[in-house]
């Protein structure tokens, strides 16, 4: 039986995998790495992070939201962004790095990729700071200021990347940035080419120049119109590819240049009262329609978790079952 | 290009700095305020179609709506008290348990651009708040319920049921990523729209 890493490489290269890659199994994500995550810690909490963005996680919600009322919006006027936006330090103490370093050392790199994690992402940072409506309008109304802001976020990501490389020598990167809704990208490909593509070419180029073999980008959305850009910026795997993208068609068109990880929409199977039958139905459809190559069946949600207990694990079991049925 | 066509073109292109001046020029040329307003509404209809078809994206829709709102500011004093220009009031909100607002905000913007007065209740709106808001406002013709989470679809069902049970004479339109036309029918909604552009078209159909 191929190792997890070997099986992944066969899947990505169009070779001879012996089973479906099972969701995130090939990545050992070093979540202990210190970073200023864009989340409130848990339900019922509210925090202001080091970027000055306030996140609120109401007790009955699945996650946290940045607050953009007048009191809490971090960046009110893009033309004055330099006065409002201050990136946190990327330097942490040896003690703060210790757990991440220990985790990375414990990973069998023949079997799995030691994987760095980065969030929320360059595009998402702009609307966390100023709200989605303000950020999208500013791309038209103040393009130069937006480019400056994006460059500033890029510099932060590059500085953070250097620290991560120094401490845990990752083989892979799992990077979050949502680029669309379920049905459409947020911005046109032309606008993406102008503002976002150059930023990510720099960032992903840096990681790859510093030991990272695999870039896994998370966007649980529609983004089929941005796949050429994903390839150009160096993404190896697009995680979160929802069914709205017509993933089988994308595989036909781009397989060999990029691998698609998803096609099991979390919203359809991950909710209170979830059933194994529904997960099996959606997973079987995904596996049969997408095939054995350039495809990793996976819930669209980011990270190896689900919103409701048991769904991620049940999905993994079903993928193993389908490997036996289909391979 | 006529003055009206210039206004239409610049609203569609999102030229918010040019539209007020062009609207004033159209007024100076003797074109009625209502006609200019309708021209801008028509422009937003084109914007909505282009958004629904994937030809344009959210930023283009936002700047077009902003351009129209700048034009409307010039017309407002001339239209004040002219109830004939409004299609009625639309109450909109994201249903209880759901905090997502971007899609709801886009729908709100497009419905307002289509000629409705909009009362936006925000997010996490209980069913009884929808009902009370209808009672508290004049000329409410339409209620729009938005939801993004599969887990809050029961709250959408409850909201629609409460509005219908109230006996108030309003139509209900629903939408959001997990909402389907079949689900809209099942819960008793009068209409469904998959996106903001279609929502404005459907809203006008429902109150016609």
Helix-strand layout with pairing:
The complex is a heterodimer of chains A (327) and B (208).
Chain A: H1 4-13, E1 27-29, E2 45-48, E3 54-57, E4 65-66, H2 81-84, H3 94-106, E5 113-118, H4 122-130, H5 132-141, H6 143-168, E6 172-176, H7 189-195, H8 197-209, E7 214-221, H9 227-233, E8 237-241, H10 247-254, E9 259-264, H11 266-269, H12 276-290, E10 295-299, H13 311-326
Parallel strand pairs in A: 1-5, 5-6, 6-7, 7-8, 8-9, 9-10
Antiparallel strand pairs in A: 2-3, 3-4
Chain B: H1 3-12, H2 19-28, H3 33-52, H4 58-79, E1 89-94, H5 102-113, E2 117-120, H6 127-136, E3 140-146, H7 153-165, E4 171-175, H8 181-186, E5 191-192, H9 196-207
Helix pairs in contact in B: 1-2, 1-3, 2-4, 3-4, 3-9, 4-5, 5-9, 6-7
Q: Give the class-level CATH name of chain A.
A: Alpha Beta
CATH topology of the largest domain in chain B: Rossmann fold
Rg for CA atoms of chain B? 17 Å
- Work out the helix count of chain A: 13
What oligomeric state best describes the polypeptide chains here? heterodimer
If you had to describe this structure to a student in words, what would you say it looks like?
The complex is a heterodimer of chains A (327) and B (208). Chain A has a single domain, classed as TIM Barrel. Chain A is 43% helix and 15% strand. The model of chain A has no long low-confidence stretch (mean pLDDT 96). Chain A is an alpha/beta fold and 327 residues long. Chain A is built from 13 helices and 10 strands. Chain B is α/β, with parallel strands linked by helices and 208 residues long. Chain B is elongated, with a radius of gyration of 17 Å. Chain A binds chain B through residues 58, 60-62, 65, 132-133, 136-137, 139-141, 181-188, 191, 267-268, 271-272, and chain B through 14, 54, 56-60, 62-63, 66, 97, 99, 102-103, 105, 124, 149-151, 177-178, 194-195.
Descriptive keywords:
heterodimer, A: 327 residues, alpha/beta, TIM Barrel, 7-stranded parallel sheet, 3-stranded antiparallel sheet, 10 strands, 43% helix, B: 208 residues, Methyltransferase, Methionine Synthase (B12-binding Domains), Chain A, domain 1, Rossmann fold, 2 domains, 5-stranded parallel sheet, 9 helices, 5 strands
């Amino acid at each position: 039986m191929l190792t997890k890493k070997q099986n992944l490489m066969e899947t990505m290269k169009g070779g001879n995998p012996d089973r479906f890659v099972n969701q995130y199994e090939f990545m050992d994500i070093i979540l202990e790495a210190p970073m200023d995550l864009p989340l409130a810690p848990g339900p019922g909490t509210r925090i202001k992070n080091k970027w000055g963005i306030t996140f609120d996680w109401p007790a009955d919600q699945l996650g946290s939201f940045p607050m953009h009322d007048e009191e809490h919006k971090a960046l009110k006027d893009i033309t004055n962004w330099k006065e409002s936006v201050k990136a946190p330090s990327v330097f942490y103490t040896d003690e703060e790095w210790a757990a991440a370093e220990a985790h990375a050392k414990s990973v069998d790199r023949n079997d799995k990729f030691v994987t760095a994690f980065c969030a929320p992402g360059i595009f998402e940072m702009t609307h966390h700071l100023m709200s989605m409506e303000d950020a999208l309008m500013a791309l038209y109304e103040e393009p130069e200021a937006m480019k400056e802001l994006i460059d500033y976020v890029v510099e932060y990501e590059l500085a953070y990347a250097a620290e991560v490389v120094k401490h845990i020598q990752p083989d892979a990167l799992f990077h979050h940035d949502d680029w669309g809704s379920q049905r459409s990208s947020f911005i046109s490909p032309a606008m993406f080419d102008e503002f976002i593509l150059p930023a990510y070419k720099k960032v992903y180029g840096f990681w790859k120049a510093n030991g990272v073999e695999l870039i896994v980008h998370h966007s649980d959305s529609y983004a089929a119109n941005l796949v050429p850009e994903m390839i150009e910026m160096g993404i190896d795997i697009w995680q979160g590819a929802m069914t709205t993208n017509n993933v089988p068609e994308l595989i036909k068109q781009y397989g060999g240049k990029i691998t698609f990880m998803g096609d099991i929409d979390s919203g359809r199977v991950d909710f209170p009262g979830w059933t194994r039958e529904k997960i099996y139905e959606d997973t079987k459809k995904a596996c049969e329609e997408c095939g054995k190559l350039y495809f990793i069946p996976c819930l669209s949600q980011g990270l190896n978790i689900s919103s409701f207990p048991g769904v991620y694990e049940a999905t993994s079991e079903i993928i193993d079952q389908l490997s036996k049925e289909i391979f | 290009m006529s003055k009206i066509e210039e206004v239409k073109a610049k609203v569609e292109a999102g030229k918010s700095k040019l539209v007020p001046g062009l609207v004033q020029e159209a007024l100076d040329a003797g074109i009625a305020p209502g006609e200019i307003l309708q021209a801008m509404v028509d422009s937003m209809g084109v914007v909505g179609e282009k958004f629904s078809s994937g030809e344009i994206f959210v930023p283009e829709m936002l700047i077009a709506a902003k351009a129209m709102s700048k034009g409307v500011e010039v017309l407002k004093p001339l239209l004040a008290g002219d109830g004939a220009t409004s299609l009625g009031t639309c109450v909109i909100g994201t249903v209880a348990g759901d905090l997502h607002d971007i899609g709801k905000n886009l729908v709100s913007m497009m419905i307002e651009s289509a000629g409705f007065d909009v009362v936006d209740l925000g997010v996490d709106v209980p069913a009884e708040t929808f009902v009370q808001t209808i009672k508290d406002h004049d000329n409410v013709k339409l209620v729009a319920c938005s939801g993004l989470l599969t887990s809050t679809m029961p709250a959408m069902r409850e909201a629609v049921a409460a509005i219908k049970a109230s006996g108030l004479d309003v139509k209900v339109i629903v939408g959001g990523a997990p909402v389907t036309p079949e689900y809209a029918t099942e819960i008793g909604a009068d209409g469904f729209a998959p996106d903001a552009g279609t929502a404005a078209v459907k809203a006008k159909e429902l109150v016609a």
